[in-house]
From TrEMBL:
Belongs to the bacterial ribosomal protein bL21 family. The gene is rplU. GO terms for biological process: translation. PANTHER family: 50S RIBOSOMAL PROTEIN L21, LARGE RIBOSOMAL SUBUNIT PROTEIN BL21M. GO terms for molecular function: rRNA binding; structural constituent of ribosome. This protein binds to 23S rRNA in the presence of protein L20. The lineage of its organism: Bacteria, Bacillati, Actinomycetota, Actinomycetes, Micrococcales. Pfam families: Ribosomal_L21p. Keywords: Ribonucleoprotein, Ribosomal protein, RNA-binding, rRNA-binding. One of its GO terms (cellular component) is ribosome. This is Large ribosomal subunit protein bL21.
Length: 102
């Protein structure tokens, strides 16, 4: 089984061909192709981590859709002062399908 560890969306993700991952928003429309540089590559029993060998490897993925994460509610409160502030946040996300490791 071939899989790679790639740096995507500020995190490292373990991917293989056919996997679907959700990362922070990437610019592009549905159907566009995105490339990643692997940090580590495992091909069966062979593990590749040398930088000069990893420069030859490219991981490609296709954008499936753009979506938003769950609502996070932030509440700030200070006792005895009458101060309270409510804020919400939804993270912009992109769903990707890995199409190739070559």
């Amino acid at each position: 089984m071939v899989y790679a560890i790639v740096r995507a969306g500020g995190r490292q993700e373990k991917v293989s061909v056919g996997d679907t991952i959700v990362i922070n928003r990437v610019a592009g429309e549905a159907g566009d192709s995105v490339g990643f540089a692997p940090v580590l590559l495992v091909d069966g029993s062979t593990v590749t981590s040398a930088k000069d060998e990893l420069d030859k490897v490219k991981v490609t993925a296709e954008i499936v859709e753009s979506l938003r994460g769950p609502k996070i509610r932030i509440l700030k409160y200070k006792n005895k002062t009458g101060y309270k502030k409510r804020q919400g946040h939804r993270q912009e996300l992109t769903k990707l399908k890995v199409t190739g490791i070559a």
